[in-house]
Design a protein that fits this description.
Elements: H1 9-40, H2 60-70, E1 75-79, H3 88-95, E2 99-103, H4 109-121, E3 128-133, H5 164-167, H6 170-185, H7 207-211, H8 228-248, E4 253-258, H9 263-272, H10 275-289, E5 295-299, H11 304-308, H12 321-331, E6 337-338, H13 343-356
Helix pairs in contact: 1-6, 2-4, 4-8, 8-10, 10-13
Length: about 375
């Protein structure tokens, strides 16, 4: 039986040198691959934009967290897709502040709240938060998040080890990091918050477009009431995702508003027998939010001319940027401000209008 030849000390040293050399070269390769992303940082994970580069800002769930933590500001505009058309330049002028815009298309109240908490945790002193509250998101579980979306969790936590998913990511390198270089060379400017996520000029508006997918029942469907379970869900949702943060930060004024969805959205609720349920849900929310002294709560659902003018809408809920501009102006006044003294009259007004509206007449060719 033959024995394997013994390894000589020289051979062992050579083997160790080879292993160490291979590891060193591998480490160098990884560092060379990661260095451009770490330095340029297209998703603002480590720092704000570098002055020598111009950055395209295009992806809310990949870039908003970095914007929130590293940009300079004392005001935030946030919410769902109906807040994407706000222009921070207008808010800056109206509120004498410096705003960022961090919307979450299709987002839920928890997602927006989580981002706002990151803003405070990063040490920012925030004077104003302008936040849209979509009424259709009130009756939802407090922990609901956007469905069917794979979040880049490595961007949202404080674990440095999973940053390899960012630094050694081929897609990030080619689609984001190198894009910054190309974008800069092309003479572009870093995306402004007026333009970021703004889709207003990409669509057509009007009754022909908005009404096309819908027909409304001739006879009123049976009404579905707001249940006690619904009520508790609304209160838990608002407490966790809106109220608690406001109570923790009395130094910030929270400008909250119910997004003015069109009469077609109310028609959709009518078809489901949920108009009164929706009105009751709004009342529960209003009564809870009015208890918080640093919340200024607005609703435009009693501006029936706006709600019924479909030239403002591209679909049942999304309105053009001129409505966002109008909303900012209204937030500086009291006409649509809800208070303990006037909210009941507001509720009586919208309840009367939306529960008696002739939705069947909205059906095309009726």
């Amino acid at each position: 039986m033959e024995h394997a030849p013994e390894t000589t000390p020289r051979a062992r040293k050579a083997h160790i040198r080879w292993i160490c050399g291979t590891l060193a070269l591998t480490l160098v390769a990884f560092c060379l691959f990661a260095a451009p992303t770490a330095y340029i940082d297209p998703l603002f994970h480590y720092h704000a934009p570098l002055s020598q580069y111009q950055y395209p800002i295009t992806n809310e769930r990949y870039q908003n967290d970095g914007i929130t933590r590293h940009f300079s500001y004392d005001g935030i505009i946030t919410g769902t897709s109906v807040t994407e058309n706000f222009k921070t330049s207008e808010a800056d002028a109206l509120f004498d502040a410096t705003f960022i815009k961090v919307p979450y298309a299709g987002g839920r109240h928890k997602e927006v709240n989580d981002n706002l908490r990151r803003a405070y945790e990063s040490g920012h002193e925030i004077k104003y938060i302008i936040r849209g509250l979509d009424s259709e998101l009130l009756i939802q579980d407090k922990d609901a998040y956007k469905e069917d979306y794979q979040y880049p969790n490595y961007l949202y936590n404080n674990n440095p080890f999973d940053d390899v998913n960012y630094l050694l990511n081929k897609t990030i390198l080619f689609d984001y990091t190198l894009q910054v270089i190309d974008y800069t060379k092309a003479g572009n400017q870093t995306t402004s918050f007026d333009d970021y996520a703004n889709w207003s000029d990409q669509f057509q508006y009007g009754a022909d477009i908005v009404l096309a997918p819908y027909a409304f029942a001739e006879e009123e469907p049976p009404q579905e009431p707001l249940t006690e379970e619904d009520r508790q869900m609304i209160l838990e949702n608002l407490q966790q995702n809106v109220i608690d943060l406001a109570l923790e930060h009395p130094e910030t004024t929270f400008y909250l508003f119910f997004s003015p969805f069109s009469i077609i959205d109310w028609g959709r609720q009518y078809n489901l027998g949920r108009v009164e349920r929706q009105v009751d849900a709004e009342q529960v929310a209003i009564e809870a939010l009015l208890q918080v002294p640093n919340i200024r709560l607005y609703s435009f659902n009693n501006n029936f001319d706006l709600i019924c003018d479909l030239s403002n809408y591209k679909d049942y809920e999304h309105y053009g940027e001129w409505i966002n501009s109008w909303i900012l102006e209204q937030l500086c006044g009291d006409e649509y401000l809800l208070t303990q003294d006037n909210y009941q009259a507001y509720m009586d007004s919208i309840r009367q209008f939306y529960t008696t509206f002739d939705y069947a007449a909205l059906t095309p060719n009726n």
